[in-house]
Amino acid sequence: MRYVHSAVHASAPSYVKHPKLPFATGTYQPLIANNKTFSSADFKARHRAALYTHKASLCATPVRKSIYTPTVSVSSPQVFEDASAIKQLQNNQTPRSRKVIQEVRQITAATSPTPVTEGRGLTRVGRATVTAAKSAAHTIRNTATKACNAWHTFTSLKAVQFIIKFFQSTYPLWKKRHRFSYSFYAIIIAALSAFEVIFIQWGMYSEPEYEKGVEIDKTTRILDSVAGQTTKFVTQMWLEQKNLVLLNFIILIAIYLTLIFVLNRFWVSTAIFGAVMTTYAVANHVKMQTRNEPVLPADLNFITGGNTGELTSFIPKSSQGLVNSAVTGVTWLVIICIIMQFIDGRNGIIHCAWRRPFASVKNFTGTLTRIAAAVCSVALCFSFVWGFGNDGYWSTQFAQSMGDSPQIWNGLADSTSNGPVVNFLRLAHTKTMDKPEGYSQETMQAIAKKYAKQAQQINKTRNTNMTDNTVIMMLSETFSDPTRVPGVSFSEDPIPNIRQIKTQTTSGLMLSPGYGGGTANIEYQALTGLSMANYSPTLSIAYQQLVPSLKWAPTINQAWNAANGGKKASIALHAFNRNMYFRDLNYKKFQFSQFFATDGKPQLTGLHAIDSAWYVSDESFYSEVLKKVTDSNENKFYQVVTMQNHMPYEDLYQNNEFKEMDASDLPADEKLNLDTYTKGLNYTDQSTLVFLSQLNEINRPITVLFYGDHLPGFYSTAYSDKKNILGLHETDYFIWSNQASRSANTKLDAVPSDYTSSNYFSAQLAEHLNAKVSPYLAFLTEMHQAIPAMSVPDSSGSSSAPTYLDANGNLIKKKNLSKQAKQLLHDYQLIQYDMSIGKNYLKDTGFVDLPE
User: Fold this and answer.
1) CA-CA distances (angstroms) from residue 737 to 466, 477, 639, 727?
2) Entry pTM
């Protein structure tokens, strides 16, 4: 029962009757009779009553036995706001009157409307909140009850009870699972790492093919075989004191242990490590077979960029068996690891209790050890890779002590001699380029003024603007004259039309930084005027490692945008998927207003392949380009990239007459690739002639800059001789103008055109059109005269220094360059650094702006 306490308690109830107040305006009426017994209900609202409670009936004498009732209506109590008036009233009244005034004030304060209203509002909100909470709690209880009932119903089924009892009976056995020893784990780690090292290195080699009729002794055949070369790589530890296989082994074990310490699950880490490394080994082998190049860190951007489908389309049929076997092997490895994860009683390599880390010394020590092991292993791997390849860095010195001999300029040679894993990590942390000596805002402003004067001198003899012409810069995928390759000959010329065009217009050979690949780098040079030779060798693909992060990316096409008031005056077309080499992203950065590709929007339509070829034909692609050109009467810039002659080069074409015309003395596989590739070139030769003829019929000045990006990578016989490496990096190019152009039938002298590199194309285009130049094009014009062609070290394969050619195509060493050429080269490095990773001091100087 409830107990109502009075304001004053004593050991026994004692009530005093108060005297009646002498009010003349009313009468007292009795409240209740004395000594009446009350129930608890009678006191629900009488909180001021003095009560005495006990187990017997409640009985009390109220303090007030009567209430005063006024005989006249009483107005609201008067509130005295004037302090002096209140004080005077208090002084004039008797003590009894002052007490009445005080009670009136209390009643007035209690009956104030605002506090009551606010209090009632808060009460309503509180009640609503409590009601909602009770309702929600009730709903939750009902739902939980229903779920429990459903669960009890389900578990009460006989079949479920049987399963539960079965697992309850086997639980003691599950708790008593045998924990594999750390020695067993160590054996697995060593065995799997050793297998992956050998498998990855095995993928670098291919079986040699010997000329017919040449006798090769058995020992030579064994040593030159894939097994022999792989064995040599392993045994050089003892034969040549080169511990390169041990270096690769240590690196893989470090990666393996890092996975284990981070995940703290041995068999899960084993499955991941084995799957990733096997995939890497197979991908490396496939790329070596198709492009004569190992897997590079930049290739991972294809996967992150959603290009996995494109990569799988490049797998040739000859490698499909290896891919299938690898998939089967990885599947079995994962299955075995899953089974072992259940059999092994050790859940974690390091004891760890995340929920109760401080429950015991064992829990605290284990948790701390696991955190330290994960952090230290990740830090070690990160530290190893961060500066690997830089002179004086600890990981570089460690690798060199194990026999590492870096050849960064030649990824193939570096991977073959030092191991693909070492080469991959050497290129993992990309350094764009070193800061040139003297780089500052003052220096760049001086360079801008210097070449602005050069531009004024050149423009005195120029009478046209480049943007007054429609320009088509066409990259013909893998186009090159096969008859220039040593050992290759045909009874009929496969490219007679283009050869004839080259004799009538500006043309020559282009020094390419790639062989068997590297399309994006050649395209990057052509659009930007920058040279890959000035970048660090660790920057392997500019489109993927550099361009996405550029803040300022000036390209030749932007001049047409500016000349047309920012309208859609530069258009890109590619006969393949738009995400290849991040073109979709990079073309936007280059300010191409539209990009047409075989997927996405806007999309190319009406494309088709020839016979069983992998990629769309040049003929159908040229038709789409022609539609875009004829649909507009404005002068625009078109960036065109074909795909017809892209590898692989299996037997794709019907009625290939070049099989009979091939007089080359080459191995069968190489000859098959050559015949298919040459037939594709013949189709390109015919389609290009038709395309130029159609452009000739348009009554608007149109100029085409046509060039092949690199040679195919199947010339194994020729590439084996270092003397042929430079020639295998030279492709064909020409600049042609239709009859409506002032530059029709223009052919520049041999000295500035016989040899070039794609970074000079924009300057050569201006010279061919006799067009005015910007300070930047004035610099490139002068640079082209000093060093006609330049490329990365791999283009000559002779040293780590960039490749420089003179006007006759001969190699020039940097130390033998003229003083003027050295100064221009230093200016080039300053300009390229500022545009790539510098402060962009040239941006607001008008350095790249063509004259109006």
Assistant:
1) 12, 21, 16, 28
2) 0.67
